[in-house]
Structure formats: C-alpha cells, structure tokens
Sequence to fold (488 residues):
Amino acid sequence: MTPAANTSEDLGQSRWISFARTKLAQYMAPSILLGWLLLTALAVVVAPNAVMSLNFLAFGVALGVSTLLFPGTLLILVMLSFLLSPENFLFVNKWVAEHFPTMEIQSLQKFILIGALIPPVVRVGIRPVMNYGIVSIVILGMMTFVVCTPYAGLTPMQTLKSFVGLALPYVFFNINLRRSWIDPHLTVIALFPLISLLLGGLAEIFQIRDVIGRPWLVVGHEFTGAMRLAGINIPAYLAFFCYISFFVCLYKAIAVKSRTFYVIAAANLLILILTGTRTPSVCAIMLAGISIFFSSGRDLRGSSKFVVTILGLSFLAAILAYYWPDLQARMAENSSEAGNGINTSGRAGMWAYLLAIWDVNQVFGRGLGTGAIALLDAVNEPNFARAAHNEYIRLLVDGGVVGLIIYIVGLAALLIQEGRFMTRTQGVFIIALFLSFAVYSFTDNTISSPPSIILFYAIALMMAKARYAREDERALALQAKRAARNER
Fold:
C-alpha cells in the first residue's frame, strides 16, 4: 500500500472517530439520564427501599458521565426539571415523606439542583466576579444571629434552606456560560409553557394523581367556577413560566431579530391569561408595552412598533373577550374576605398575619427563614397558603426594613455590573422586566419559588451574550489597529 493510500485511510479513520465522538456526546447524556429516570420509576413503583442505593449510585454515574460528555445538555435538562413541581403529586409526597421526613420537597429539589450544578461548574469553570446578590443574602443570614429578634419556630436549618433558596438563582452569574449554550437554552426556555402543557396532557392520560388524590387535569375549574389552565404545574407556576418565556420571546424577537418568536410570544401570552392569574398577566402586558415603546429604532422601527402594538392589542382583546366571564368569577369578592371588594385568594389575611409578626422588630425583622415558616403556624387559618405571596412582606419579616433595602440594593448592583455590556434595547428589556417584576412581587412568590431560578438563568444567559459580543468588538478593534499599524 502506498504512503498516499495510508494517509487517505488515516484521514478517513480520523473523520469517523470524530463523528463517533460527536454523536456519543450528543446522544449519550440524554440517554443516560433517561435510563436514570426509568430506574427511578422502577424504584418508586416496585421496591423503593431495595433499590434506593442502586438508584442514587446510577444517578451519580449518570451525572458524572453526562457532565464530561455534554455539560450544556445536562444543565438545560436540570432547568427543565423545574417544570415538574413534584410537590403537586401524591406519589412524590408519599415517597419523600418516607425517605426524607424532615425535608420539604421544594428544598430537596433545590439541594438536588445544587448537586447537579457542581459537575458542570467544575467542567466549565467559574467567573471570579463579585456577586452582590449573594453578598446581600449573606448579610441577611448574618443579621439573623446578631440583630434580629428570632421567631420562636426558626431553626438554623430553616435559615440555611432559605439562604440556599434565595441565593441559588444568583449562582448563574458566576458560571462561565459557554457561547454555544446561550441561544439553544434561551429557545428551550421560550418553549417552557408549551412543554408544560404537553407533560400535563401525558399526566392526565396516565391518570397521575395530584397531592390530594384527584386525577391530574390540564384544564380545571376552581371553587369560583372559573376555568384555569394548569399544564404539569399549578396555574400560578405555569403563569410564572409564561411570564418568563414571554420575556425571552420578546428579547429574541426584537433585540436578536428572530421574528419567529413573535408567534411563540403570542402563544405564551394566550396560555398566561388562560391560567386565570391576574397580576402576571398585567405585568406581561406592562413588560411588552415598555419594551416595544422604548426599544431603539435600529432594532424596531417606528412603523414596526405601530404594527406590533396594533396586532398585540387585537390579539389581547380577543383573548380577554373569550376569557372575561372566568376572569370576572376570579375577581369576585370572596366571602372569607368580605369588605375588601375583590378576591385576593386569601392574601389579605396572610399579609395582615405576617405584618403582625414583623411588627415585633420592624428594623431588623425576625430572622432569615421566618417568612417561609410563619404561615405554617397559623393553625386557626386553614385557608392560608404556605407562602407569603408578597416578597416585600416576606423580606420585611426576614430582615426588616434594613434587610429589604440590602436585598434590593444587592440585586440592583448585580444587574448594573453584569448589564453594562448590553445594547440600549437589551438594557430596556432588563429595565422593563424588573419594573414589571417589582409589581408582580406584590402578589406572588417571585424570588422564592422554583420558576425564579429559570428567570435568573435566562437573564444570566442574555448578559453573557452581551459580554461576548463586547469582547468580539474589542478583538476586532484591536485587529484593525494592528493592521493599520502594519500598513505604516
């Protein structure tokens, strides 16, 4: 055989090996994770105690191999896992109660997420920058043991769980998010509500039961008679995911000029309104209005703004005309809240209860974690939810006026630091998001519920994209200077 033939054969073999490795990395990670999910199902259904250790061993192997082969796939699959809201399903509650009796399901889910994040972080590295969001929460934790008036039921473990829950969304700003992840991951996040509806349909087909034993329904009716869309989540969580995905779609459609995302944005808005949630629907409209009106003319011309606005308002009017009877039913005053003039779904009573707890120490609050457990002690109020549904009141209870200010300043400082590379239109989107988010936070758990992790991950991706674009601009400018110098 001639040397030329040998070279050709080696080249062909090298290409085959490269192809095989690419396909291995592309399909092995999802396949291993799918295998682990099937093994988990076997553990729950057949013999949970007998295969528990094997299950966790398989999970560890799957995590390690997946990270080595394709860390980006693992990361977005972990993000997708937050669609499931396991606390809403009866069999998950029974399993957790048996194996982790002292751990809340949401806290367990977040601790598992931390474990799943460690390998990708080790694989891609961290950004050694000051994270003012995490610093603010560390200060809140320190205040708990120094200047707060501790709530009777507050334990160090509860403070730790609340610290993890509040700090986890900020971690993404310290991860070296790869360029190749940004657009695919944002696209997946834009599709979260549609994926939720698909999974909810499967849960209904297979007659999975909710936390109180009823068959899971994608389209249900609450006690007011109003129809509400749920997907694989409760309506409130699906609404939060819709709000996030709607924001991502507008960003992709206007700031990145991917026009297909106008259609996905319309679908997300439709789903959002059909969840029957009032504040997130208003906030999404507010977000769209500010983003479209103040976007740079280079990204969205005046005529385009007019067309998008007219089409958007027409679409919104059609949705509201269809859903108005159900919305009226949801707005009607609840008999348990007589005198308020509007149905706040029990929020008015919960807020009064929590404010009375905060009143003991208005300056420094009752300790980090109090806002998460105080409502559990309201045994005489069976209609109370487990969470505050108002992040300002929750932070007042946890850290007082000082703690609330520290948290807001930390968040603002982080956004200013990380957002300095964004274009004018991208900056407008972030400002519009947090103006509407500030309103949203008056009536829901926007920084302490699992969807908030997805929101902050999306923001971190957008800011990483802007940072990479600025680095490219600087590299091109440096090349141009060197070329000009060489010509001389």
